């Protein structure tokens, strides 16, 4: 599970500047590269599991649609960054990116920043920020090759090259994963299931639902002088999966091989860092762009003018481009100031093939956001850290909104205690789909939130024991919902998007780590209690379990060997049965995983894992299957 290395880790997400994590006033979890390497073999989803305040849901195994909920916020209300660049899919319903398609190429660390962060990061950062930072090459050339195989026809390859020479540094990586998988819908589900009509029994499950995905990352930098450096980066993936359609009204369509998706994502950025005034002012200019393409083929999902169904392909293309400036000014005894401006344009284009002689309405739309932000940080009495700041975002032909954030922390150096608190507002602009699709409303107001947290971080016995506790609450207003409402136009017969929702989330987060026997035994644990309520219906929000936690025991008593047993516990979880249109409660479950790594020498290491040791039957999404007991193993070569 994720940990915080309070002695060495640095963070960027909290205040947009690098600082030791123990100097931050925010609730943040840093996942280091060693943990990412161990858990990222099937993608990034497993890396994030166990992070306090974070929930992940996959609709049927690796590669499937994966959504993230941070402190109860929706996927579209959680901002994802890669190397400081906003990542999302402007063509998706809520603008979020499917985490199931992501692969881990060469990641240095992941920072999970919890609570409203729109004052520094703008739209979408209502629940928090997940920041993925890829490796920056350093030192002599280093090469590694990882190969792995195992259950469900899994084959995995990862290769990396990094290093530096004089003023040049570089890092390149590729990752390829192929999984035969298992049927996504109905696998290991004991109760009787039906197709979309609610009457016809589900047909026999297919042999598998394969996933094939790959990714690449690259960072290349050059220091022109002591004060100026340039950098360019690339991050991308390609994902092909087969999925099931349980809502079909014909049994042959549920598991039809026609149901498949191909998705690609590519991101490029160029960056200049320049110091001025004897390094009192650091300037950063970033030019960025990314594009997401999704093609979805589905059996009998399109209709002609007479409502006759036929097979078709739907295409979704989302683009994002823009530039950003950030300045960091040292103010001496008066702390430091961070300020900047950003211009970003999002666009979406949808298509359908074949196109019938009906009223199919492709979406061709764009919106540009102009932003400015500023923050002041200072330390009083050498122990009292304060920050406050704000941001203004103006969306062309839409709304202008302002957000703010303030933090405070006091460090008791003698006892290793830090008391911290933060308060701020969040906002999310309606997605292009919600504004310009046939169900949309171009005048939708931004979703907004007000949140705060208080917490304590404690390190004892020369950092052999570390614990972090946070209490938080968030209130959401003007949430965008979809239904058949009076505000819908005459042509929106199936429903429309409108602002009406209100919600509140509050809870407790805990993370801790203890070294029981130096060099041999240590333990980690995390726990989240969450209350998430829809204030309009006064019912709990779906897919937000009230209680969940994880605990690990790690043994490193033999040179080169590391063994870990990890237990994940999830309490009852509310979900929805879309076939019978009713709420359901998923049963609680416990899942045990075992990991082993053995470093033979400096060049060769072996690794293995057994997931779901007890073969527990559980569901993350109602009626969608999860893997049974499964074993994997591989070898890594480094030179």
| Helix content estimate | under 10%
Low confidence ranges: 2-9
Number of domains: 1
Strand % is over 45%
Number of strands: 34
Summed over residues and divided by their number, the pLDDT gives a mean of 93
Structural class: mainly beta
What is the CATH third-level topology name? Maltoporin, Chain A
Please, how many helices?
5
Largest sheet: 22 strands, antiparallel, barrel
User: Over the alpha carbons, how many angstroms does the gyration radius reach?
Assistant: 24 Å
Overall shape: globular
Could you give a short description of this structure?
It contains five helices and 34 strands.
Topology:
Layout: E1 10-11, E2 19-20, E3 27-32, H1 33-39, H2 45-48, E4 54-58, E5 66-70, E6 78-82, E7 85-87, E8 107-114, H3 118-121, E9 128-134, E10 142-150, E11 154-165, E12 168-179, E13 211-223, E14 228-242, H4 251-254, E15 260-276, E16 281-303, E17 309-330, E18 336-353, E19 364-380, E20 384-395, E21 400-412, E22 417-428, H5 432-436, E23 447-460, E24 465-483, E25 496-517, E26 521-534, E27 539-540, E28 547-555, E29 561-570, E30 573-577, E31 582-586, E32 589-599, E33 604-611, E34 630-638
Parallel strand pairs: 6-9
Antiparallel strand pairs: 1-2, 3-8, 4-5, 6-7, 8-9, 10-11, 10-34, 11-12, 12-13, 13-14, 14-15, 15-16, 16-17, 17-18, 18-19, 19-20, 20-21, 21-22, 22-23, 23-24, 24-25, 25-26, 26-27, 26-28, 28-29, 29-32, 30-31, 32-33, 33-34
